[in-house]
Amino acid sequence: MDKIPEIIAYAKEKLQEDLTGHGFDHASRVATLATQIAKKEAVQLDEEVLIAAAYLHDTIDDKVVPDVAIALTKLQSFLKEINFSAQQQAEIIFIITNMSFSKELEAKANLSIAGQIVQDADRLEALGAMGILRTAYFGGSHQHPLHNPMIKPINFTDKKEYRKGTTVINHFYEKLLLLPDKMNTKTAYTEAVRRQKFMEAFLSEFYQEWEPENAEFF
């Protein structure tokens, strides 16, 4: 675990200025959630790989970096420099290049147990109160409309089209509310359902406030 401080420092350097909801604070929470899930599930895994993948997963993401290929090359060199084994390097890179929701629109990868747990932790961050705020933050940064009843949610099957987005509220139906059923572990599924209920209550309130003439506030 002696490499983790360097991993954290690398992630902080790459993510601290992010304004899309994928900053260092997000990476830190994913690492914490991944550690908690692994402990609860009581599985055997390489903890350094788990934590490294959690902190680094957005440092090569096309939502965050302008050139994925360059970011990936830099990350691979960094992992080698701090003496991760070739096997560890390969597992970390495979996890972070195959764990995203958009990647699964193309094909679902066979992630290791560490990868499945990091994926679960990242997806929990897209749910609940944090998920609501991050969705609004990301949508605003990309100039997506907040809500337009005339624009219906899309069942995306193509990453390029998915990246374009529709509206902030549609994103709940296009991705977020689908996540609980995509969890890999029982621990994450239980927490995902709890957060999903909170989001559904939020949406119910949102629709009342969006059309106050039809609401029963008073």
Automatic annotation (TrEMBL):
Gene3D superfamilies listed in its UniProt record: 1.20.58.1910, HD-domain/PDEase-like
One Pfam match: HD
UniProt xrefs under InterPro entries: HD/PDEase_dom, HD_domain
Endpoints of the signal sequence: none
Sequence ranges assigned to domain HD/PDEase in this UniProt record: 19-136
CDD domains in UniProt: HDc
PANTHER family: HD_PDEASE DOMAIN-CONTAINING PROTEIN, SUPERFAMILY HYDROLASE, PUTATIVE (AFU_ORTHOLOGUE AFUA_1G03035)-RELATED
Name under which the protein is recorded: HD domain-containing protein
Lineage summary: Bacteria, Bacillati, Bacillota, Bacilli, Lactobacillales
